[in-house]
Design brief:
Strand order of the largest sheet: 1-2-26-25-24-23-22-21
Strand content: over 45%
Radius of gyration: 18 Å
Largest sheet: 8 strands, antiparallel
Distance between the termini: 38 Å
Mean pLDDT: 94
Low-confidence stretches: 1-14
Number of strands: 26
Number of helices: 2
CATH topology: Neuraminidase
Length: 355
């Protein structure tokens, strides 16, 4: 990336605009995948990706981040946050806490997990702290050989608990079979604990999203390969224990792909995004199924009543964030072979104008 400001191009659908933040072939990388985005307490946007030198989840992968202090209109140069040589730095997850500290979690080759923190809105980050011991505590219930966070973003609950969904597998590079859970911190990230495992009733649950509902419950929205081809949800009173048996959400199709979920400020509702497409689906990860990224709106996070297509062409993984002014930010993979990771900006009313 040879410039610090990007022209915002009008998007094909009225009410949105887009910026290609990471473009395949730039900076010596084959392509960029696994997007994440958060808005800090001061309103700064932090957008981050896996920067892959070759194709594949287990390739030579770094993690890059870019910042915007003007609502996504202009962007700074990319910051290298993780580089393990020929090993993968994978599944980056940021948690933007209300006190201004940003925690940045990521894994090393699906075997270790680290936490870096920023107190200056993502300008600089601390040295990484190894928090793999938190995952070792899962072994009594599930003797994993693969661990991963998120991806996407984590959340801070009203009571101050920091929470990030995780998934674990005993299948090595196949990433299946698998289960899901969370890690959490009640001391502002000084220490991390494990939650209860869930998802054993689902077929290969993995990349999971979290949101706090108005009644205080925490909802996990779970990728899975079950024959129902629908997203699954589970609920907990504290975000760590007592998870309900997962149930399927009829409005949210599952093309076996990462999705994204955000609670909007105040009581403005919730937004969900994923490839809303089941053509040629076989119940497993099929790259050709990843198109038609669609954003949906719900008043309560439970019933999804409005939706609009954001990207009708090839499109896959995404993450969502929201500004205090009601602007929704969707960072998503776009184009055949993930030609770019693109940021779309739009008001929430743009979704509600859909059907």
């Amino acid at each position: 990336m040879k410039f610090t400001a990007l022209l915002l191009l009008p998007f094909a659908l009225l009410g949105t605009d887009k910026t290609d933040l990471f473009t395949a072939g730039e900076e010596g990388y084959h392509h960029f995948r696994i997007p994440g985005i958060v808005v800090t307490a001061k309103g700064t946007l932090l957008a981050y990706v896996e920067a892959r030198r070759q194709q594949g989840d287990w390739a030579d992968i770094d993690v890059l981040m870019r910042r915007s202090t003007d609502g996504g209109r202009t962007w700074g140069r990319s910051l290298l946050l993780a580089d393990f040589g020929e090993e993968a730095a994978n599944n980056p997850v940021a948690i933007a806490s209300r006190n201004g500290v940003v925690h940045f979690l990521y894994c090393r080759h699906y075997a270790q997990c680290f936490d870096r923190r920023s107190s200056d809105d993502g300008l600089t980050f601390s040295e990484p702290v190894d928090i793999t011991a938190t995952f070792e505590r899962f072994r009594a219930d599930y003797d994993w050989n693969v661990i991963a966070i998120g991806p996407g973003h984590g959340i801070e609950l009203r009571g101050g608990r920091l929470l990030a969904p995780v998934w674990l597998s005993t299948g090595g590079r196949r990433h299946r079979p698998s289960v899901v859970s969370v890690i959490y911190s009640d001391d502002r990230g000084k220490t991390w604990e494990r939650g209860e495992i869930l998802g054993r009733d689902l077929v290969n649950p993995s990349e999971t999203l979290a949101a706090e509902l108005e009644d205080g419950r925490v909802m996990l929205n779970i990728r899975n390969e079950s024959p129902e081809k629908r997203r699954a949800v589970s609920f907990s009173r504290d975000g760590a224990t007592g998870w309900t048996k997962p149930r399927f959400v009829s409005e949210l199709v599952e093309p076996v792909c990462m999705a994204s979920l955000i609670k909007l400020p105040g009581k403005a509702g919730y937004v969900f995004a994923n490839p809303d497409n089941l053509e040629s689906s076989t119940g497993r990860a099929v790259g050709a199924d990843r198109k038609n990224v669609t954003v949906q709106w719900s008043a309560d996070g439970l019933k999804w009543t409005h939706k609009r297509v954001l990207e009708p062409g090839a499109s896959g993984y995404s993450d969502l964030a929201a500004g205090s002014d009601g602007t929704v930010y969707c960072l998503y993979e776009r184009g055949a072979g993930v030609a770019a990771v693109t940021l779309a900006r739009f008001p929430v009313n743009w979704i509600r104008e859909g059907k």
